[in-house]
Design brief:
The protein is an alpha/beta fold. The chain is built from 16 helices and 14 strands. β10, α8 and β11 form a beta-alpha-beta unit.
């Protein structure tokens, strides 16, 4: 009898072990957990809270953004029935993102809460995303407010660790129910240290940006909106877009690039502005070109008044700690009403490359601090030849294996630029006068005077005068709108 009972006991233990292993290695244990959770939920009364992604004015709900980031940072995302895998900013980084219509459980102060991502489809085919919080009614008064405050703090910590800058672009109006902005990680490597710019000018710009970051109370005391506007003007390839990237990295601000050609009308432009967030840079590139198109085609979607209201109208105050950046090839082509004080605070000129900038590029691209060909390059620059920084950079990158070949290629390009400038300058004069001057120069050449050298010297003198004038105009700050008053003028 004893042996029979012992055998039965051993058999029961073995059976339990086998059943447990079967449950553990199959989905049966998971099904049992879900069934138990279902029964448990029926024993409690729950309160539901919806956190929509957008409000009625299609402005992004910042609470949605914070809760969404917080939920995807929780370890229990791995335990959800379905999750999305995305590559991170680093090549080896993988991010798990909670999928729609999945329920995620979280605990706070001994209470269990549930979150679910919903995407309610509308008749137009778009979706209205929202997060739904489910909390027991008897826990609601005790934990709701502290729990949401905890999410705010957790989000701030996540942002501090991540420090990721994002680039937003506006899309067509047909996708409005999902918001008018689409974003991606902004991985541009440019920084304030890597951009090639006059050292004193760079220092003054950095000081102006730092003063802006610390001037919230100052602006409010003056009754002004805490924002700053910059106009970057210069020829193509002078580094305006790269400077915007460096500015975003310096401030740790997201970039909103506004494509005016995808905006339907003035009201649509206001809605785009409403959907931007604080701590952001709003960028409108080639403003002068758009204004020229507006003159040739008065029926364009956005009126001049709409652009002016976008820059400093009432709607521009719907969001603080914001920087607006406008780029143009020349501010001479922009009306005075557009760049008046109050609309544009800082004017920064991006000139073509001079010898000082060339040496900086040679140091960063070729590792050269000095070279035997530098005096020849400097002489050509002094005669008035010039290239854009982008052109010189491309030459140096293509010939980075041989610095001497790179410098010789730069010299050839500068000589070609100078010859083209002089040719256009001479062709602009009258043909009869040109013939007479040619004969006269021929006679002078026979007597030992070189007319081409004289032309180069004259062009160099004019170039030097224009360079001195441009250097004084590189960084203009409106004294009445200089924020804390420490900006350079």
């Amino acid at each position: 009898m004893f042996l029979a009972n012992l055998s039965l006991l051993i058999f029961s233990v073995v059976l339990l072990v086998v059943v447990f292993r079967i449950l553990w290695k199959t989905s049966l244990i998971h099904s049992l957990k879900k069934s138990w959770r279902f029964v448990e939920e029926k024993c409690y009364v729950y309160q539901f809270y919806r956190v929509p992604k957008f409000n009625d004015n299609m402005q992004e709900n910042q609470l949605y953004r914070k809760v969404y980031a917080y939920l995807n940072s929780l370890p229990c995302v791995e335990d959800s029935d379905f999750a999305n895998l995305f590559s991170g900013t680093k090549s080896t980084e993988i991010n798990l993102i909670l999928d729609e219509n999945q329920t995620l459980a979280d605990q706070f102060l001994g209470a269990r809460v549930y979150w679910k991502i919903e995407n309610r489809r509308s008749d137009g085919g778009g979706g209205e995303k929202s997060l739904v919080l489910k909390i027991r009614k008897n826990d609601k008064r005790r934990i709701l407010v502290p729990y949401l405050q905890n999410i705010h703090q957790a989000f701030d910590e996540i942002e501090q660790k991540r420090k990721e800058v994002r680039l937003f672009v506006n899309v067509e109006n047909g996708l409005q129910r999902d918001g008018r902005w689409r974003s991606t990680s902004f991985t541009h490597p440019a920084t304030m240290d890597t951009i090639v710019m006059d050292a004193d000018l760079k220092t003054r710009i950095k000081s102006d940006l730092e003063n802006f970051l610390k001037s919230r109370q100052y602006y409010h005391r003056l009754g002004r909106v805490w924002k700053r506007s910059y106009l970057l003007y210069g020829s193509a390839g002078t580094g305006k877009s790269t400077f915007v990237a460096a500015m975003a990295k310096f401030l740790s601000y997201d970039i909103y690039e506004v494509n005016l050609h995808k905006v339907q009308n003035d009201a649509d432009l206001k809605y785009l502005l409403l959907q931007t967030t604080k701590k952001s840079i709003l960028v409108v590139e080639d403003l002068d070109r758009y204004l020229d198109e507006k003159k040739s085609s008065p029926a364009a979607a956005i009126s001049i008044s709409g652009i002016l209201n976008f820059m400093d109208g009432i709607f521009s105050c719907c969001g603080e700690e914001r920087v607006m950046v406008f780029t143009a090839s020349s501010k001479e082509n922009i009306g005075a009403c557009v760049i008046r004080p109050g609309r544009i605070d800082v004017h920064i000129n991006f000139p073509l490359c001079d010898f000082t900038a060339f040496k900086s590029l040679a140091g960063s691209h070729l590792g050269l601090k000095d070279h035997k060909l530098f005096p020849q390059v400097e002489e050509i620059f002094q005669t008035g030849a010039t290239l854009s920084p982008a052109e010189i950079c491309e030459i140096m990158i293509s010939n980075r294996g041989s610095p001497s070949r790179a410098l010789k290629t730069v010299i050839t390009a500068l000589q070609g630029n100078l010859a083209g400038r002089i040719g256009r300058r001479l062709s602009g004069s009258g043909s009869g006068r040109y013939t007479d001057e040619t004969d006269e120069h021929a006679k002078e050449g026979q007597s030992g005077i070189h007319p081409m050298k004289e032309i180069k010297n004259l062009y160099g003198l004019l170039r030097a005068r224009s360079s001195r004038k441009a250097s004084l105009d590189k960084f203009d700050v409106d004294p009445e709108n200089s924020g804390s008053g420490h900006g350079a003028s």
